TonB-dependent receptor (Ramlibacter terrae), 122 residues
Amino acid sequence: MMGALRRNEDNRVRSFDQYLQGQWTSERVSVTAGLRHSRVSFDSRDRYIAPGNGDDSGSADYSAVTPALGLVFHVNDKLNLYASAGKGFETPTFNELSYRPGGAPGLNFGRTAPTAGSGRSA
């Protein structure tokens, strides 16, 4: 038996990323550096508008510029030592956006993207 209709929506996600990378190499050392710009857009169009259930349409955009750096030390023809560091970027998923605190209908467009050390926000 199917329950009563509570949601009907058209959800879309778009992402656009650009990446810039450069490399410098000498006989003993190679250095690679990069920057990435990411933008992720969520859009929801509510198709279930009824008395007591208003229009919950909305959108949210998340963007960040993240760096990456790599270093290789060429010890000899058979041995390389390397290290790398970078920063990541994470957005909420549509599933995470699907629920508002307290169980209110519609998407939680107030949710922010997590950052290092911040934990997740509701």
Remarks:
- The chain has one helix and four strands.
